[in-house]
Amino acid sequence: MAIAEETGGKVRNETGAGPLYDAEEERFARAKRIEAVAKWVLPIIVIGLTIWIWDRIVVWNEIPHYVLPGPGLVITTLIEDRATLGMSLLVTLQITFLALAVAIIGGVGLAVLFAQSRFAEMSFSPFAVILQVTPIVSIAPLIFIYVESRLVGLLLCAWIVAFFPILANTTLGLKSADHNLRDLMTIYKATRWQRLRYLQLPSALPYFLGGLRIAGGLALIGAVVAEYVAGTGGIGSGLAFRILEAGYRLNIPRMFAALLLIALTGVVIFAMTSLISHLALRKWHESAVKRE
Questions:
Q1: Sheet harboring 5-7: ordered strands across?
Q2: Cβ neighbours of residue 171 closer than 8 Å, sequence gap 6 or more
Q3: DSSP of the chain
Q4: Residue 79 CB partners (closer than 8 Å, separation 6+)
Q5: CA–CA separation, 161 vs 183, rounded Å?
Q6: CA–CA distance from 275 to each of 39, 171, 227, 261 (Å)?
Q7: CB 3.0-4.6 Å disulfide test: which of 19, 123, 204, 237 passes with 241?
Q8: Are 194 and 240 in contact (CB under 8 A)?
Q9: pLDDT tens-digit readout, 136-179
Q10: Could you give the CA distance from residue 114 to residue 125 in angstroms, rounded to a whole number?
Q11: What pTM, to 2 d.p., does this model score?
Q12: Long-range CB contact pairs, 63-66, < 8 A, 24+
């Protein structure tokens, strides 16, 4: 029966075959537990402290609510105006998710075309770059002049902003497939469709999901900017118009409430896309596989 002995912070058996207990491993495990707790606790503490400082600044300096409302007043306004702001939020979400869906379909489709045809990439990639580098606030007025439907105009503006990250990342992923595997598939006379389906698309998935996380937030930004430019009121107005309306009326608490809704929406969209990425990659890709 082996007899354990303690040496240098480690517990070894009498044969010296190896440590049964390693203090270094225990410290590492403890650090991982602390990191797992701090990942949630620290942001909550920082956000709570920021809100408290915001409230104290308003109270100590007796700032009027039409200049800078306190956090309590913003939350109260959000609750009281939930019907109006809720309808506007639905409008903004509709534009955002429609634009993101169209960006996914168009971006992935065009990326596949670029990966299959070098001439197609050389022909159309300059237009994609031009759309990306041109500010949407300069394109939006022209879109609303030539497009009669307000919904289609808003959708185009949001799509232009969200389209390029998906196209660029997916194209990069399709071209990043292992060249040795490409040569192997060539040796076995795989068709272009088989190479795309079994090699290039799986290789591009992490890149596509990275672009999706970026495009989700950009689609929301594009929808809000388009609403600013459109400036159309009424029942079908989004959160951007509610912010403009509140500014005109000096209803600053409602303005902050609408801004809070936009920020929370962006956080939720990023969390959703991150969760999708994690679920899709957690079992096989290095960026998501947990290390023991």
A1: 5-7, 10-12, 19-22
A2: 111, 114, 115, 121
A3: ----EEETTEEE-TT---EEEEHHHHHHHHHHHHHHHHHHHHHHHHHHHHHHHHHHHHHHTT--TTTS--HHHHHHHHHHTHHHHHHHHHHHHHHHHHHHHHHHHHHHHHHHHHHH-HHHHHHHHHHHHHHHHS-HHHHHHHHHHH---HHHHHHHHHHHHHHHHHHHHHHHHHHTS-HHHHHHHHHTT--HHHHIIIIIHHHHHHHHHHHHHHHHHHHHHHHHHHHHHH---STT--HHHHHHHHHHTT-HHHHHHHHHHHHHHHHHHHHHHHHHHHHHHTTT-TTTPPP-
A4: none
A5: 37
A6: 16, 22, 28, 21
A7: 237
A8: no
A9: 888 888 898 898 888 888 899 999 999 999 999 999 999 988 88
A10: 8
A11: 0.84
A12: 65/252, 65/253, 66/250, 66/252
DSSP states along 219-277? HHHHHHHHHHHH---STT--HHHHHHHHHHTT-HHHHHHHHHHHHHHHHHHHHHHHHHH
Cα–Cα distance, 182 to 218 (Å, whole number): 34
Using CA atoms of 144, 148, 149, 153 in order, give the dihedral in degrees to the nearest 10. Answer: -20
Number of residues assigned to the chain: 292
| Per-residue pLDDT reduced to its tens digit, 211-265 | 999 999 999 999 998 888 876 555 458 899 899 889 888 899 999 999 999 999 9
Cross-strand partners of 12: 5, 19
